[in-house]
Amino acid sequence: MGMVTQKTRGELIRNLFPELPDYRFRQTEEAVFHAGWKSWNDVSNLPGEARAKLAAEVPWTSWTAADLHRSAAGDTFKTILGLPDGNRIETVLMKNSRGQWTVCVSSQVGCAMKCAFCATGTMGLLRNLTSDEIVDQVRYWLDFVASPEGPGSRISNIVFMGMGEPLANYENVKESIRTVLKRTDIGLTRITVSTSGMLPQLEALLLDQDWPDVRLAVSLHSADAKTRAQIMPSSYEGFLERLKNWALKYLAAKGGGRRHLTFEHIMLGNVNDSPEHAAKLADFAKSIGDVRVNLIPYNRTDAGFAVTPDARIRAFMDVLERNGITVTRRKSQGDDIAAACGQLVVRKS
Fold first, then answer.
1. Run of H or E including 321
2. Cα–Cα distance list, 226 to 229, 230, 281 (Å)
3. End-to-end distance of the chain based on CA atoms, in angstroms?
4. Which of 110, 243, 245, 324 has the most crowded CB, counting CB atoms within 10 A?
5. 111 in active site
6. Residues with Cβ < 8 Å from 151, sequence gap 6 or more?
7. Smallest Cα–Cα separation from 340: which of 131, 90, 18?
């Protein structure tokens, strides 16, 4: 489970044209990011014979169908992409605070983490996405934003916060980030990888010279070990202390500037939203140093948790701020099209 063996787009092209000069290969890589081009037949800087062979043998995209949904506010779009094996994934485009657009990509079909508040976990893990399948979500939105029916402006950010645990698909996520950095104008600190806290992989990336130093966000959701284990079955005894030790090493090696570490905390009514939970979170964050906290209002799913009232969220934030913690509150977008955090779930078509 979780493994996909089909060849990447680049491997297919190399097999099709074993003698292809490097500059021609770069042209094929660049071509798929060309806004407005819809097939290999549009790639005017390649010879006609090569275009015909590519069109016959190499899929232009890794998805076969797209079902677009637009929120009533017009600030969020969700697309369900159908894959050749019948699986489907969701990807989201959200207007950000800079008046530009953020793409939320999925890294797996489903998820094995089974976080109690997240709809994706009810799917289980069906498989990892290939690097092409991750990159092609970004390509889809780049084309959409630039199209006549699109919202205009530009895509400035990417977050790996869609379906799946990104670090459980480490190599494909890494390769997809490297491709996006190479072929778009989106910078390192405009890409965020969110993880439930897979410590072996987090330790590995500290030593991985090929890992792009993008921003990291850890889904903490509680600094109380018992509470965290109740809502995140992947948690375990000693996790918080191990996470703290890793975070100290991470900040020493890669911190500073705009590459800060973020802890994400979903607000679940009467579960992890009390002043006591806020105080524990503040103490945990202070024990590490330069970390930020992002509070996420719960978006209703079939899990049945209660929504934390605004006043209680404000009180939670006040505790953190009084302790010198930089804290933000995520704006909920797209809940009317089930595109908000924790709501992504699709079944095989």
1. helix 310-322
2. 5, 6, 13
3. 19
4. 110
5. no
6. 74, 77, 95, 101, 145
7. 90
Calpha distance 257→238 (Å, rounded): 30
Q: Which of 90, 133, 165, 175 is catalytic?
A: 90
Alpha-carbon radius of gyration of the chain: 21
> How far apart, in whole angstroms, are the C-alpha atoms of residue 242 and residue 184?
36
Per DSSP bridges, beta strands 125-128 and 108-110 are antiparallel
pLDDT tens by residue, 14-32: 999 999 999 999 999 999 9
Distance, in Å, from the CA atom of 341 to the CA atom of 152, rounded to the nearest integer, reads: 24
Please provide the DSSP assignment of 146-181 as one string.
HSTTS--S-EEEEEE-SSS-GGGGHHHHHHHHHHHH
Q: Is 72 exposed, middle or buried (0-12, 13-18, 19+ CB in 10 A)?
A: exposed
* Dihedrals phi, psi of 248, to nearest 5 degrees: -65, -40
Q: What is the pTM of this model?
A: 0.93
- At residue 192, the pLDDT reads 97
- Please give the C-alpha separations between residue 275 and each of 64, 216, 327, in angstroms, as whole numbers: 48, 26, 15
- Separation between Cα atoms, residue 89 and residue 110, nearest integer Å: 8
- Residue 335's pLDDT band, with cuts at 50, 70 and 90, is low
Residue with tokens 């809502």: 231
User: Which of these, 6, 17, 4, lies nearest to 56 by C-alpha position?
Assistant: 17
Q: Residues, the chain, total?
A: 349
Contacts of 241 (CB under 8 A, 6+ apart): none
pLDDT per position as a tens digit, 105-144: 999 999 999 999 988 888 899 999 999 999 999 999 999 9
List strands edge to edge, sheet with 326-329: 65-70, 76-82, 88-95, 101-104, 155-160, 191-195, 215-219, 261-267, 291-297, 326-329
Q: Is the dihedral of CA 295, 301, 302, 307 positive or negative?
A: positive
